[in-house]
Design a protein that fits this description.
Blueprint (H helix, E strand, L loop, with lengths): L4 H4 L4 H16 L18 E4 L4 E9 L3 H8 L5 H13 L5 E11 L4 H18 L2 E9 L13 E12 L14 E6 L8 H7 L15 H5 L7 H10 L6 E4 L16 E3 L8 H10 L3 H7 L4 E7 L4 H9 L6 E7 L5 E3 L4 E4 L3 E4 L2
Helix pairs in contact: 4-5, 6-9, 8-11
Length: about 350
């Protein structure tokens, strides 16, 4: 894709992908001076470290991104902590682990008490929704690095999540087969990806476009990321469903399904409803369907891949916590290809989506 709105807003995903590849290649060569404990390669949502013959520790780290700028501009800090927890625990659950704890790192321009209290309130809410503890963290005052929108409210927020998983219960996606069902769980909106484009398209945070049903742009963009941990644990613990693949739908949209370790493709022929905020961004930023599906979750925040015979049971379990969950498609034998027929889109990892007609 060339000259797309996201790149014009300052985020060149193609260039970033190449940079990450170089970073990963160097880190892959680390010699710890002992046998390696990491069981998975780079590219999955989390990795698992072998502790003994039965148990592994799942680890993942992520931040909130430029959503913090919206919080700064609105002076509302009590939701982004939920996003920080969500972005981490939703990744750790993708390997079938039980998230146990999260450590937070907060870098601030100035240690402003009300701001930090608000951030902490969000972290607490997110932790309780996910069933994790926050046993420690770090606060760094970095006025030379962090500048607010406006000052002195600048901050950045990052977390690292730890969980446990039995080595014989790790979900990698390798068991996914053509014909399996893909169950989608609804998002709450933008979540924590694509905010650079969303903010560029909708700069007036106090605006109340009719498309948003009475909410302001700021309120809509700050809607917290959904935490899917309890529903997915219900599914895994039920014993009634073989869970073959779990995918957190973040930047890259449904192309995230290709992060699962299976030589398959995916056909999403019944996608979940698209929240109005994405259509509004499309109008204001002059973005096409292909770009939107690469940048945003487009209404689907998480996917579970199960055998077709288990789809009805899986849907019943997941919908109990996330109404609106639905079977959105199936696994195909078109290796590395994600098809979204209603939107006439096809996509491959590293190449993005393109319109097929």
């Amino acid at each position: 894709m060339t000259d797309d709105a996201y790149a014009r807003a300052g985020v060149d995903t193609a260039r970033a992908g190449a940079a990450v590849a170089g970073l990963v290649e160097v880190l892959r060569g680390i010699d710890p001076g002992r046998p390696r404990r990491a069981l998975m390669g780079s590219g999955h949502y989390a990795n698992v470290l072998r502790i003994d013959d039965r148990t592994g520790i799942a680890v993942s780290t992520d931040g909130v991104g430029s959503k913090v700028i919206v919080a700064e501009q609105l002076r509302r800090f009590d939701t982004v902590g939920i996003d920080c927890v969500a972005m981490n625990v939703n990744d750790v659950i993708c390997v079938g682990a039980e998230p146990l704890a999260l450590l937070d790192y907060i870098a601030v321009e100035e240690a402003e008490p009300d701001m930090l209290t608000g951030i902490a309130q969000g972290l607490r809410t997110g932790a309780e929704r996910a069933g994790v503890e926050i046993p420690g963290g770090e606060l760094a005052q970095l006025p030379e690095l962090i500048r607010g929108h406006p000052s002195p409210y600048g901050f950045d927020l990052v977390g690292t999540c730890f969980g446990t998983v039995a080595l014989d219960a790790i979900v990698t996606g390798a068991a996914v087969r053509p014909g399996d069902a893909v169950v989608g769980l609804p998002s709450s909106g933008v979540h924590s990806n694509g905010l650079t484009l969303a903010r560029r398209a909708l700069p007036d945070l106090d605006e109340r476009p009719p498309e948003l049903g009475g909410a302001t742009v700021g309120e809509t963009l700050l809607e917290p990321t959904v935490i899917y941990v309890r529903a997915v644990r219900d599914l895994i613990d039920s014993g009634a469903v073989e869970v073959r693949g779990l995918a957190h739908i973040t930047s890259g949209g449904l192309l995230n399904l290709l992060r699962l370790e299976a030589d398959v493709g995916y056909r999403i022929d019944a996608p979940l409803a698209v929240p109005p905020v994405f259509e509004l961004v499309a109008q204001r930023a002059d973005s096409g369907a292909a770009e939107l599906h690469e940048v945003f979750n487009m209404g689907c925040g998480f996917c579970c891949v199960v055998p077709a015979a288990h789809a009805a049971t899986a849907l019943e379990i997941l919908a109990a916590r996330h109404p609106g969950a639905a079977v959105i498609g199936e696994v195909t034998d078109a290796v590395g290809l994600v098809e979204v027929p209603p939107r006439t889109l096809t996509g491959r990892d590293g190449q993005g989506f393109e319109t097929t007609r």
